[in-house]
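Example record for the data management plan.
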Amino acid sequence: MKMRVSAVQYHLRTIRSFEEFAAQSEHYVKTAEEFGAEFVLFPEFFTTQLMSIGNGQGQALTINDLPDFTERYRELFVALAKRTKMHIIGGTHVTRQGDRLYNTAHLFYPDGTVGEQAKLHITPTEVQEWNMTPGEGLQVFETEKGTIAMLTCYDIEFPEIVRMAKAKGADVIFCPSCTDDRHGFYRVRYTSHARAVENQVYVVTTGTVGSLPTVDFMRANYGQAAVISPNDIPFPPRGILVEGEINDDMIVTADLDLELLYEVRERGSVTTWRDRRTDLYPDWN
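Corresponding structural encoding:
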């Protein structure tokens, strides 16, 4: 089984209406469609661009205003997924449940179904500045091309949660990200490689680029998309199927061969998933 994936280096810029956001999002989806993508990944927090629309008094909207766009955001991406017949991982969008805010990844299926996965590990900035709440449980998502998981940015830095996703059957981890400097970017990038090696899975990651000068904590972005594989003979030696140019507005596309994953798990140079020592440390499932 093969699946073609695209990852969007979404360029954040100030906008004046939801329609501008919709047009930019549709541009990326149509571009991925032209490349024959079956899955397309947007970055974490890319909908913060909506905060730059402002309140009509020259001030940006706040994080508490962002969930007010949830219905329109979902309608937009449901329509795009149905029209293109693609699976769209719509980055993350801030949602509200009661009085709590969640950083929620969305999977839009071609039939209009929507899957959600709240971010499980919340950074200090998300807690202290935006009062975000961590999600409570991990899901994997069945698709016609295989089983996937959505783990957002900081989540990928925790080996246990990715091991749980693999134990639940995920072969591909989609990791939308948003980092504002090289330190944060490389934390996510290097741990994405580690998780691919440890669990013999693919990791598809991307981040925001550009800036939102009026939106607090979104003024600086440092991002690059990459499709990452295990480091074994059927794959590139560096474990990179494709990567973008850092901080450019662009899309990258690659084909994932799931049969190669199954092959290296059984007969690879190393068999890290099979060789885990559950007699010495607990398994995560």
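Summary line stored alongside the record: The first helix runs from residue 18 to 34.
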